[in-house]
Fold this protein.
Amino acid sequence: ASGVDDLDLDGNWAPAASDEKITKEKEKRPLEESAAGDGAAADGSAPKKKKRRKSTGKAKAVVTADPGDPSEWASQMVAAAWAAEVKASSLTPLEAKELMPRSSWFEPCPSGTPLAQLPSAVGGAALPTLAAVRDGTEPKLPPAQGVAVVILCTSTQRVFAALPDVRSWGVKPVALAVHGGGRKAKLLERQARQLSAGAAVAVATPGRINRMLEEGHLKLDGMEAIVLDLVRDMKQR
């Protein structure tokens, strides 16, 4: 308890000398701690320098090939798009190496070829389905749950805009995209049934293709080609 000695001349309580010492030590300690954090460590050792992250060299793919060499041009286009995706998604260098396009992946198709004229432009021996369409014969269906030719579009809107061009080939394409106002599960089941016996051509979005693969509704057996549709939809996607 405080005694009379703790009161000032006006009768107010005054802290003892020991109390003042404790208060000053408490005020001094945070300043010392902050100084240690800004400069040297509390034990007097030199502060640790922060390591600078090394540049991973992402997004360096550049399209330099002449469109006159369609295979090399297509390879560099895909490489540039993948480099942009690597940067946008902050992928690691190891993840970035998962896709390294080569010109041998691509059939020599002239840039700007309309989708309706695709079979005439690339229908060779390596692509029997497109060759059959070009020659006016019935293409052979791939194994169950397979698709011979997949046309990838940027959006559902572009999928349905491309369907008339594909129907002009004389085939009945399967549309693989999220659409309609019904239940999505029912739509997925209906699309899975369309693929159950195999399909010559499918026009799809990348997201729907991934979903069909993940749930086992689509198999890669018998797939001859993937067509990258570069036409933008009405929203310029």
